[in-house]
Each structure stands twice: as structure tokens, then as C-alpha cells.
Write a structure and sequence with these properties.
Strand content: 15-25%
Number of strands: 8
Radius of gyration: 17 Å
Distance between the termini: 20 Å
Oligomer: single chain
Largest sheet: 2 strands, parallel
Number of helices: 5
Length: about 170
């Protein structure tokens, strides 16, 4: 299991879209290294993150209802619909991303049934009459400074941990 978070230091209106773009990139990267059975769940909302454990075995954890919801969506994903998003992610990204809608599904820990949404591809500027957020993708996806800082922190963390630690990087 791999958890990605967006907007931890500074929330933006683009966090949900960044998560969907990351899900597309992750899926493509996993396909490229021969992991075709992967599943991804994406939600948006508040979560707690922090260090857990004694100094010699400390880990960073993230928990909360939306983290659980992402895990539940991941569990409901299929070979044909490997990425599932919550309705909140769909609502914030539907102008920039083409989606398919699933049948109503029951998610553990949630009352009633929920809709999950399958992101299919990024919309073209012309797909919605030119009024799409898709034109803004380059403005926020190209966060090279933040990516380099994260890669540096990941490398430092991996160097301080036993060989079982692994981090990936993709464009």
C-alpha cells in the first residue's frame, strides 16, 4: 500500500485534480514495470498525519475517514476500473477529467450506498466548449521544486532505514 497526499502544507483548489493526475501517472508507471493488477482509490478531505512509534522504529502515518474511504474504493476497484474516486473528487475535477460512473456500491464504514467514479482521461480544452480546467494542468503539475524536495527527503529516509524501505519516482 502506498499513500499519496496533496495539500498538506498548503491546500489549493487543484489538490483533487493533482490527485487524479497522480493516479493516472501511477497507473501508467505500474503498468510499465509489470504490475497490471494494481488498484487506486482517491478521495479528498481532512486527515491526520504524524509520526508514530519510538525513535528507532518511527514511521509516518496518515489516518481518518477519507483515508479509510480511499482504501475502501481501492478494494472495490477492478481490472477494468483500476482507479476509483469519491464523489467529492469527481465534483472538483469533472471539468478537467472524463469519468465513468459505477453502479451504487456499499462501502464498509459508510451509511447507505455510494457512487464511485472512474477517471478515464483528461479532457481536451475543446471537450467542454473551451471552459475547462484542463488548460491549468501544466500550471500545477510541474511542481519540480516540491518534487525534488520530496525525492531528497525520501532518499534520506531510505538511507536511514533497512533495505525493506522503497520509494519510487515518476514523471
Amino acid at each position: 500500500t502506498f499513500i499519496c497526499s496533496f495539500g498538506m502544507q498548503k491546500r489549493t483548489e487543484q489538490d483533487a485534480l493533482r490527485a487524479v493526475v497522480c493516479a493516472f501517472d501511477l497507473s501508467t508507471a505500474l503498468d510499465g514495470v509489470g504490475v497490471p493488477s494494481h488498484r487506486i482509490g482517491a478521495t479528498i478531505g481532512r486527515a491526520f498525519s504524524g509520526c508514530c512509534g519510538p525513535p528507532d522504529r518511527r514511521d509516518v502515518v496518515m489516518m481518518g475517514p477519507e483515508v479509510n474511504m480511499a482504501a475502501r474504493l481501492m478494494g472495490k476497484a477492478t481490472a477494468k476500473a483500476r482507479i476509483l474516486t469519491s464523489e467529492a473528487v469527481w465534483e472538483r475535477t469533472k471539468r478537467a477529467v472524463w469519468f465513468d460512473m459505477t453502479q451504487k456500491i456499499k462501502l464498509k464504514g459508510r451509511d447507505g450506498e455510494s457512487r464511485a467514479f472512474v477517471p478515464v482521461k483528461m479532457r481536451d480544452m475543446n471537450d467542454s466548449g473551451g471552459s475547462s480546467a484542463a488548460g491549468d494542468v501544466e500550471k500545477f503539475v510541474g511542481r519540480r521544486e516540491e518534487a525534488e524536495a520530496a525525492e531528497s527527503m525520501a532518499a534520506a529516509y531510505a538511507a536511514s532505514r533497512p533495505a525493506r524501505s522503497a520509494f519510487g519516482s515518476w514523471e
